[in-house]
Design goal:
D-Amino Acid Oxidase, Chain A, domain 2; 11 helices; alpha/beta
Amino acid sequence: MEKVVIIGGGIIGLSSAYYLLKEGYDVTLIDKKDFKDGASQVNAGLIVPSHIVPLSAPGMIEKGIKWMFDSSSPFYLKPRLNLPLMKWGYRFYRSATKEHVSKCVPILRDFNVFSKELYQSLASELEFQLHGKGLLMLYRDAETEKEEIETAHLANKSGVKAEILSAQEVHNLQGGLIEDIRGGVYFPGDAHLNPSQVIQSLYQAILKLGGRVVSKETVQKIEWDSKGIRRVEGKSGAFYKADKFLFATGNWLPELTKQLGFSPLMQAGKGYSITKNQMEDKLQIPCILADESVAMTPIGDQMRVAGTMEINGANERISKKRVQGICSAVEKYFPNYKMELPSSENIQWGFRPCTPDGLPYLGKLKSHQNVFISAGHAMMGMSLGPASGKLLAELISGKELSLSIDAFNPNRFD
């Protein structure tokens, strides 16, 4: 039985472990935390076939520059003399074209649809629920309305159903909204779930399938030769040997794989989330407040509010101004709901690993034949987790792939 070591215990690593165990591999999953922390646990829980436009799209440069000077805006990039950041920024600029978007639309559509189908199967096997209520994009600003309607037309043209709604139709779907909302776009094919339930269900399933899980272990040293990695060493002093190694480490990837001579372009985009009791006008459908890029998701008797993309290095500081921006956005749309700034211990956050072209790194490393990469999913890690895990399991097993992964080549920027 071939052994696989997976480094990284978020939704990508857990999904990969699950599908590799199903293929009959001996799997060891290593995570530097305890599977209860990280971005996979605190995200909005949205499964989004509607998200067909990559982060690097026309207009994002101008919008990002404008937002940089607003301390409560949904985006912040700290300018600094940092070579990896400058290389990443240059590639982002080169990718922010209509041609790039056109190329990415069918790729992201198929990737997300495949992942949703896998979630449907997993929900019948494991202990979590997938709620197929769709996603509602809401807007107050005329310019945002124009952008969202253009995206809706692009989605429909690409086979992703989108319904453009008037203000009255939006009010009929969701109570408590401001009177002068301009309207919305409804994506009926989207879904949502409780991220914590999914993480814990996969964790338990991995144990039942015979997987080995090592928590609170940081891989520090990689031993390799011309044939690939021989073993990795953890901070504890333990060694982990395997036939194949998968790095699903999120924004930690460049720091770790530089030992292999692989320095992928990636920036950590910090996002925040707050979990609150439901509003009086209960949130019926997950929605994104498009003017401020804030997501709201009903999770049982609570709702999760999440937003911001803060590219400021992998630091653990909480920006109260950006969290206040999230709270203020909710009140702009739901004026009867007072969302006070929570204390620091009630603010959750995680890093979204962002590539410069908006596509993840997924595949075999060119320089090391037994090394595989799955990272850089940005804001869609939860949505794309099962598909990424399934495709990596197929690749490692030598099976025919369910989808082409050529566009995700980890070495594409070499």
